[in-house]
Amino acid sequence: MTTQVDDATRERRVLDRIETARRRRPKLRDEHITMAHGAGGKATAALVDAVFLEAFRNPALEALDDGAHVDAGGARLVLTTDSYVVTPLFFPGGCIGDLAVNGTVNDLAVCGAKPLYLTCGFVLEEGFAVADLRRVVAAMAEAARTAGVTLVTGDTKVVPRGRADGCYVNTTGLGLFHPGGSTLDDESPMEGVVAADDPVGPWPVGYTPPGHRPTEPDRLDRLGMAHARPGDVVLVSGPIGDHGITIMLARGELDLEADLRSDTAPLSGLVERLLTATSGPEHGGGVRAMRDATRGGVATVLNELAMAAGVGVVIDEDAVPVREAVRGAAELLGIDPLYVACEGRLVAVVAPEAADAALAALLADPLGAGATVIGRVVDDPPGLVLLNTAFGGTRIVDMLVGDPLPRIC
After folding, report:
1. What is the per-residue pLDDT across 176-190, written as a single tens digit (0 to 9) for each?
2. pTM for the predicted model, two decimal places
3. Which Pfam families is this protein grouped with (predicted)?
4. Can you give the three-state secondary structure of 249-286, one letter per residue?
């Protein structure tokens, strides 16, 4: 009995020290940028905190969400931006073009917004084939049509041969925040927005004039990583790691073949289905948080959640869906599938009362056909993610260190 108490005490002390260390602000000790600064893990967090937050600090940015909520003339908008440097440009299941559109659409969707408009910037290398550029642009156009967004402005720059890797793409997205998961069906989504001093209403979805409050609480105002609560359930919308491993195999650097395709896809319809299915009062708080598991994979999403909400997260290894081809390739690369990027998967944290409805909603959509519950939110240890292994043990799932899969998006 004494031995068991001593072991528990030692374990608690170790966890306390880890928790204390993780709650310190990340420090940027590097004098030069490395590939790890773009991997979405610890180095990225340190760079963002020490350089970008330090210079641009404001409430919208400090949320460090996938998009920023801003008010414009009374309308609640969500803005997001992303740059794409994936290599190769074309890969099984997609290319840099549809990847850019889908990634930006998904960042808006998981913030609770209806994606509406995109901008696009190209950095092209001298000598890049016009035929390849046409393929990229055609893929972007098709992806935009599928997602129901319009590309409304853009920019093109050309750099000398050898100064870029063919083509880089930046996309910025604008979405309209829509409470309750409701949609905007009219052809002009901003049409009908009344003046901010209009005292009458009713007002369009996503619009509340200054000085007025919605008649019902806007539950999506509570949508964010910091709103997770102990007892909440963690779901993932399908098998993880498909995109990252597909890219690595497409580079031809591994003596390995597998029937894999990138999972790149627009998730706005899936998100709307999820929010609608969990909107009733019988579902408690409904959806607490969502994030698409891109750079750094599911592990990074869960660590950001744990630190933002000051909670612990416990997941079960056997419950995490991973295709055998992905698992095998990850073993050869010496990486954990939990850290491998997805481009068509979301992680959702929902109130326990909403878990069944959330899972059913995901499973009813082709993009969520492999959805499953992978874990839960707990009180202790706060700020940490724990994995119950298939062998009956427990290990810490930390933030990504280094960049095992460079330029996968």
Report:
1. 986 544 333 444 454
2. 0.86
3. AIRS, AIRS_C
4. HHCCCCCCCCCCCCCCCCCHHHHHHHHHHCCCHHHCCC
| Closest to 263 in 3D by CA, of 298, 293, 300 | 293
Distance CA 95, CA 115 (A): 21
Q: Is position 44 within any domain?
A: yes
Residue 315 corresponds to which tokens in the numbers above?
């997941």
Residue 14 is assigned to a structural domain of this protein? no
pLDDT tens sequence across 260-297: 999 999 999 999 999 999 998 999 889 999 999 999 99
Residue 196, pLDDT > 90, answer no
Specify the CATH number for the domain of residue 276: 3.90.650.10
The band of 3, judged by pLDDT with boundaries at 50, 70 and 90, is low
Q: Would you give the distance in Å from CA 284 to the centre of its chain?
A: 24
Q: How many domains does the structure of the chain reveal? A: 1
Residue 91 covered by a domain: yes
Residue 200 lies in a domain: no
| Cβ atoms within 10 Å, residue 366 | 10
Per the CB < 8 A criterion, the answer to whether 345 and 240 are in contact is yes
